[in-house]
Predict the structure.
Amino acid sequence: MVLQVRNLQTCFFTPQGVVRAVDRLSFSLQAGKVLGLVGESGSGKSMTGLSILGLIDHPGRTTAGEIILKGRDLLKLTEEERERTRGKEVGMIFQDPLTSLNPVLTIGYQITETILSHQRISKREAWEQGVNWLKRLGLTHGDRIMNSYPFQLSGGMRQRVMIAAALALQPDLLIADEPTTALDLTVQAQIIQEIKRLQKENASAIIFITHDLGVVAELADEIAVMYAGSLVEYGEIEKIFDHPQHPYTKALLESRMNLGEKQVKFIPGLPPNLNNLPVDQCSFAPRCPMVCQRCWEKRPFLSFTSSGQLAACHLVEDRGRRENSVVIGA
Amino acid sequence: MLSEGRFLQKIGKHCLARLGITILLILIAVALLAPFLTTYQPTAVDLYAVDQGPSLSHPMGTDNLGRDILTRCLYGGRVSLAVGFTAVAISLALGIVYGTISGFVGGWLDKVMMGIMDGFLALPNILLVVAFYIFLEPGLTSVVLVIGGTSWMQVARLVRTQFFSLKQQEFVQAARVLNTPGYKIITRHLLPNCFVPVMVMSIINIGHAIITESSLSFLGLGIPQHEPSWGNMLMGGQMTLLKGSWWQTVFPGMFIVITVLSINFLGDAIRDSLDVRR
Amino acid sequence: MERGGVGEKIMAKYAFSRLLAVIPILFILSILAFGLMHMAHGDPAVAMYGGATEKMRESDRERIRENLGLNQPLPVQYCKWLSQAVQGNLGVSYLDGRPVTKIIQERIPATLLLSFSGVLLMVILALFFGVISAVQQYSFFDHVITVISFLLFSIPSFWLALILILVFSVYLGWLPSAGINSLGQEGNLLDLLQHLILPALVLAVSHLGGYIRFLRSSMLEVLNQDYIRVARARGISQKAILYIHALKNAILPFITYLGLSLPSFLAGTFVVEVVFAWPGMGQLAMEAARDRNYLVLMGTILFSGLLVVFCNLLADLLCFLMDPRIRYREIRGHWRDSSA
């Protein structure tokens, strides 16, 4: 087990109120597996990634929970120790390759700096490593690229550079925050192939954050669906795609366009305002097609379904109780 | 938490703004009411009371001709404030006209006009002011004219830049399509949208004008010493400084600082409050 | 990747193009200076002989005008003057008969010393306070610095000079209050430094306000960028992030801003020179203004303009060297790469 997240809570304290960006999130991840973290924008998936890395800045703060990476609770570390885990034990790839690279520093500098801040080797060796990683990602003119500046490269190349920089330290856990969203479709496909290949080669654990279910379907072994900061469904990907339990997951899957369909199915309503979200109701209640009285009064807990998934819905709870399955309290 | 720090800063700025306005209003009131506030005349020479330090009869001391410094500071306020406001009004008028022409017409005329302006801007301000000034009769009007005539450039550039960016916007193009005459486009669409940044800049320029006037007078080139101005009082102050007559330097300078500071607070607060809404 | 001859050629080309862009401004400057001279009470002869003309007879003035060809059309006069000026002949000071160019050249080193020291001091202070202010945003320190910046903005430099003279020369007696060196101490470096401290400090501090706020907001903008967060995610140390990743980006607009505000900085230098009786170009200009020595004044205007333009060029070149994006614009086409 590489990563265990228990009851993670990250809040933003604004003058307008408290935003619970990540609300009592729990999941786990084994080495060599890919977890797809899915949800709309504002669902808290990026915040989860940043929380694991410890990059939540004011007015936000991780207020509760445990992030256990290879047996160590990251939240109990000092800032210095945390800094040392970043890059080496947990790596992150970000969404926009254009703004994610420093425009006035060469690629070579940015890659070797990363390597050198965690390993005591010579600059030359670090450079060699950098070139090798670029090669592994399909960029053959390693030396030339290392000497270039970010604006001299195309979007696809930049993203590969980012991935190379993130993987260069061979972290145990890699968090990929929508790495393909800003790219053209063809490049997107290539990058996904690269990630797949590298994941097999290195057997690292990956959290793949995206709102694109198609991408998730290709890569992930497990999927976690988030809504308004909390987990609504979690389980193996085939099971969830075949038998989604939570109304939100069902709606998400249905809203994917299929060839030949005339109408776009969408989820009515808007994502909730995370400011001062009421605690004692289901956050999806305003938009749920199967909403009942209880959904407005009590917050559903994650419960196991018969097929082995976890879902946070009163209906699932009921079904579970009828089948005598376990209810997991949060 | 740090968010409170930010919140406090916003409130703090509001307080500063209010403080700025209050002080400014007090200063203006004091300057206008000067004759009623002191018993001395600003130009009354009293050779028995030369170079006296602060005392009960002269709270801010006297200068080298025995004139009461507090009185001269108050009267000097009139001069400095008057110069500040008038000069900025002049520079505003000049700048808006120049910037409007350059910005509205564009093309080669704009390039030429901006080039000329850049030439002016390349010179140190004080040098330009002095150069223009020595060709005029020394006195209040000359000071105002010269300061106004050398500080229009920033306003012009601002107006011109705003015009350029506004011209691209759709409502202007719509007006053009409807064959709205040029002057109407300028007065109804373009100029009103420049209002806020130009106003903020002008307020801060008042502070600059006051400092420029005091610099000129300090150098002996502005208001002659008979009529008090904070600047020429400081010129007198410099001469007696080495003797240790600190009051002649400290008090007039503090008036300048407080005035300009409150103007700056005001300008900054206005810029902040109007920025957020946009 | 601009190694070898390509890099140097590019830089030379860039420098040259900036130089060309500067010529129109120089042209306008010369017209300004020439025009000022001819504005002297509507009588150019007055310009040549300044205050002395008031004592002349009309016939003498007429003779002067005739001799100097002042009855010719303005453009002709301008061209004549310009050709002389380019060769370095700016006329002769009526007070002591010495060539204007020579007088000014004697004064330039002092001005350069003072303004350079002032700029250096100011940049160091601005970097220090601006960076800390940005990093500790909204902290007590930040608020204090903001208020102080406002204060500095509102203090006239000559008043600050007077106050410092009061404290350090009159009351404490630590530092001299005027001049560039004490009598008989011309070669003494320590003495020079003692005289330099106060004026340079005044110069630096009185302009500090604006620069601190600019650097602060520049740094803040950079620190909020994605690539900073990405660098942190890779475990780069806070120090490296601040001083390499962030500062390298924040300093580019700062240099441009510095270049743009050079004229006001030079103006500040001139005023400080007068207060401290510093034998530089500014003091010369003010004296010339008082003596109605128009030719000298005009000369100082020209030289000041030249100085500013030259420094702007340096700032441009500095930006070129430090910002790879500007370099890239110039060598467009060399490194166009297609997707791998």
